[in-house]
Amino acid sequence: MSNKAKTGICHLCGVNGKLSYEHVPPRAAFNNRPLVAQAMDDLIRNGTEGARRRVFQRGAGAHTLCERCNNLTGHWYGPAYVEWVYQGMCILGQARGNPSLYYNFHILPSRVIKQIVCMFFSVNPPTFQAIQEDLVRFVLDRDKRHLPQGFRLFMFYAVGTMFRQSGLTASMNVLYPRRNSLFSEITFPPFGYVLSVDSSPLLNSPPHADLLDISRFGEYGFNSYRAIPLKIPVLPVVTYFPGDYRSQAEMDKVYEAVNSGADIGSPAE
Q1: What does the alpha-carbon distance between residue 243 and residue 170 come to, in Å, rounded to a whole number?
Q2: Domain assignment present for 52
Q3: CA 176, 209, 161, 190: dihedral to nearest 10 degrees?
Q4: Would the pLDDT of 71 be above 90?
Q5: CA atoms within 13 A on the CB side of 170
């Protein structure tokens, strides 16, 4: 294995130099074991059996942030995010994988949302930060409030067989144009997140109607500790397609219909 230092453009501040390994999500948030991943474009071309597999020995992540950005965001936001994840995992376990009530989360919401947004910078190319100056300032200024205009952050309990990370993805609905979406997604149990970019009237919806909007987390101050009641939806993650929350049973019906040549129908209204 090469010990050569990784260099490039920091996905957060845009400085060109040495890059450090950024865990997405943080290592202490159950991301501390080897994982096997496959690239989306390779999966589309070759399918799950033919696509090349890459082993992440240190957990999911990549060399995306300079040491300064990695250290600052990790110190400011990492511990609060880990606490948030542990509470979510505890609730998911107590509810046997199907929580259906409101539960109080005792958290530092500003730190949680800024860690999540920082993660989205890592899963997108460095060109993303170059055109999202307000979002960069939101993360690098720990006291800055309010998610910038044009962005919304959604979440859900991610229940399934895989984790997913995708940069900006466009989802087009021919039958219902107002449901078109431009979004980036990170799913890693227990949570999944969708960063929605409202770039135009034709790209103004999250990819699923049941997602919980937590953009208001950005309204709190850096040291504001709150008990926030949340009813978080549970959505399955069984395919590698971003924004696809069909269950395994639904996917089995699709496979059966395709193999039999039957009409699989149109999207539900």
Answers
A1: 10
A2: no
A3: 150
A4: yes
A5: 8
The 10s digit of each residue's pLDDT in 238-261 is 888 888 898 888 888 877 887 776
* Residue ranges making up the domain that contains 233: 82-259
Q: What are 102-128's pLDDT values in tens digits?
A: 999 999 999 999 999 999 999 999 999
The single-letter DSSP state of residue 4 is: P
d(CA 201, CA 205): 9
**Domain annotation covers residue 61:** no
Cα–Cα distance between 85 and 155 in angstroms, integer?
Answer: 12
Strand-pairing partners, residue 170, are: 182
Apex 190 CA angle, 189 and 192, nearest 5 = 75
- Residue 70 is inside which H or E element, if any? helix 67-94
Q: Is the peptide bond before 25 cis (omega within 30 degrees of 0)?
A: yes
Number of structural domains in the chain: 1
DSSP assigned state of 268: -
| Residues 112 and 80: beta-carbon distance below 8 Å | yes
Classify residue 220: in a domain, yes or no: yes
Q: How far apart are CA 269 and CA 247, in angstroms?
A: 18
Rg of the chain, C-alpha, whole Å:
19
Give the distance, in angstroms, between the CA of residue 153 and the centroid of all CA atoms in the same chain. 9
Looking at the domain assignment, is residue 230 inside a domain?
Answer: yes
Provide the residue type at 47 as one letter.
G
Residue 101 DSSP code: S
- Extract the tokens encoding 141: 């200024």
